[in-house]
Amino acid sequence: MNFGKRLIRLHHSNAILFLVLTLTGFILFSTTFRSVFPAIRVMIRDVHIWIGVVLCLPFLFYLPKMVKHLNTLKKRKNNRINLYLVLTILILLIVSGFLLTFHRDFAPQVSTGALFIHDFSTWFGVPYVIYHSITRSKWFKKLGKPAAPKRTLDDPIVIDDHNPIYTRRSFLKAVSASAIVIVFLPFIARWFRSYLPASGGTGAVIGEGNKLKPLPTPNAKSAPPIGGGRRGQFRYYTVTEVPKLNNDNFSFTIDGLVKKQNVYKWDEFVKLSRDVQVSDFHCVTGWSVYDITWEGIPLKKLLQQAGIQKGAKYVKFYSADGVYTDTLSMKQAMMDDIMVAVLMDGQLISQKNGGPVRLIVPKMYAYKSVKWLNRIEVISHNHTGYWEQRGYSKDAWVKS
Ligand SMILES: Nc1nc2c(c(=O)[nH]1)N[C@H]1C(S)=C(S)[C@@H](COP(=O)(O)O)O[C@H]1N2
Ligand SMILES: [Mo]
């Protein structure tokens, strides 16, 4: 088989792989899909990674032939630009994909950067590849005809049907490019906005769909936040509908193997004395938020006040969503920086962020940090949390 034919074959197999990568990538990225196939989420991630690896192989075979290929493109500037673009996108995706796969072995800053590059090259690469495959297809080439008859240098330049200012092909190219840009622009804009600093954080108390009274008065260390305000953006995750909490349906229970069981209503709960701490927040999918000032009740304090009974080995956390749970060993639960948090950067934690009350376990990946926390149960036997049941590692420690 000659080089050209092999290149075309390579294109077809790569196009299919790229399509599957785009689909699995979209499922992994989308926050709405978290509740759709939670059981196969880890499998989708592994498929995504392995297809990425498979896509590297033809690329490696191609590299030694690249010089030869470039020579055939000497007179075709557009094709050369296309080649460089595609190779740049591929290299960015492969390197950042590699770093994301093994991000637990690196500092969180590495995955923050890798995730940005992976998203960035996807948001620009996918529309570009779609454009490329449309405008290079036989179907499109047929549409683009008839081409103008070749002019010789002596002919006067006449603009007519055969020689329009824009050929039909370039007109169609412009149309497809604009259509693709129009479809993708809102997504790209939304993704890009998530990296801009949050607006409107002026110390006002926000709760969105949650309606709770009285509102907690922030500690002096919270407003203004001693951490200086968080850096980075949360991706709001939920595996259920977002629960709406108000004075009637809010309760906070501490029970199980404790000496004093307790069920707090909101007005009692806001009276508990709170501490302030600054910590970072890491999701195992690669994003982080840094220097968040949390105000809440240290878990250790709550447990000590309740009094631990003999035989108590684990602490189980429940969410008001009725589905999500996680556990810590008693020793882990006694770490000083675990917090039952009520305020973030001086504001009531918003509904989609897990408010009014969420758990914060700074030293572990955030799947431990149960949102809409409404019950703490001290137990004797281990319980496997929501995401651990679905393939997440039982070891959630973030490497420091
Ligand atoms: N109840 C509940 N808590 C949850 C989750 C969830 O889906 N439901 N997702 C976890 C995961 S994987 C992460 S990364 C963080 C996300 O917190 P955020 O939505 O406030 O960014 O919440 C954790 N706690
Ligand atoms: Mo996460």
From TrEMBL:
The chain crosses the membrane at residues 15-35, 47-63, 83-103, 115-134, 171-192. GO terms for cellular component: plasma membrane. It comes from Falsibacillus albus. One of its GO terms (biological process) is respiratory electron transport chain. Residues 241-387 form the Oxidoreductase molybdopterin-binding domain. This is Oxidoreductase. The keyword Membrane applies. Keywords: Cell membrane, Membrane, Transmembrane, Transmembrane helix. Pfam families: Ni_hydr_CYTB, Oxidored_molyb. It is a multi-pass membrane protein. One of its GO terms (molecular function) is electron transfer activity. The lineage of its organism: Bacteria, Bacillati, Bacillota, Bacilli, Bacillales. The keyword S-adenosyl-L-methionine does not apply. It is found in: Cell membrane. Residues 3-132 form the Cytochrome b561 bacterial/Ni-hydrogenase domain.
